[in-house]
Amino acid sequence: MPSNDPGPLSWTLRFKHHKTTILLFVEPLQSFHSIKMGLIQALNATRPDGKLDGLAIPSDPEEVLLGLPRNPHDLGEGWVALEIPEVEILEEDGGKRKIGGKQGILNTSPQGAKLKDGAVLAFKFRRNVADMDAHGMALEDEEQWDVLVPSYEDEYGSQAEEGGSS
Question: How far apart (Å, rounded) are the C-alpha atoms in residues 132 and 127?
């Protein structure tokens, strides 16, 4: 795992869960496995009870799922899973090939996933194995990400609350 001291080429990624945001310095070609380990270490360092919002913090990085915003300019539109499951496609010549999966280029590093410095990702913890499908993805609430995005009104209140009428 790279050192905690950022270099001139390091990126800052923001990881969100419920009301929690964690900033991590990462290298553009650092593996997501290593990044998830850093996220787990940061969570354990700040949560001595080993829980985040009532959920046990896993020790295995494979238990951490990452999500990308549907619209990077409006986080309130929701999230989609970062990891692309492995699928088999038919070639024009009739042959088959596999794309995606853990070793797919989009699943290996932030740069491979076309992320940029300052990108925002959601994270959640995988449920137990009984709740998984054949690809290891959670069966229930796969697209459910517990991320609260504050609005302007949440932060500053509306003008009506301030008694702005003359």
Answer: 8
Show contacts of 132-135: CB within 8 Å, 24+ apart.
Answer: 135/85, 135/86
Q: Hey, what are 46's tokens?
A: 């700040």
* pLDDT tens string 93-114: 877 766 665 555 556 899 988 8
Instruction: Sort 152 into a burial class: Cβ within 10 Å, 0-12 / 13-18 / 19+.
Output: exposed
Do the beta carbons of residue 96 and residue 90 sit within 8 Å?
yes
Per-residue pLDDT tens for 60-96? 999 999 999 999 999 989 998 887 666 677 777 877 7
**Predicted structure pTM score:** 0.74
Residues 6+ positions from 80 with CB-CB distance below 8 Å: 67, 68, 70, 143
Q: What are phi and psi of 151, to 5 degrees?
A: -100, 170
Tokens read off for 71: 């619209």
| DSSP helix/strand/coil, 105 | helix
User: How many angstroms separate the CA atoms of 114 and 150, rounded?
Assistant: 26
The helix (H) or strand (E) run that includes residue 102 is: none
Rg (CA), the chain: 19
Report how far apart the first and last C-alpha atoms of the chain are (Å, whole number).
Answer: 59
The Cβ of residue 93 has, within 10 Å, a number of other Cβ atoms equal to 5
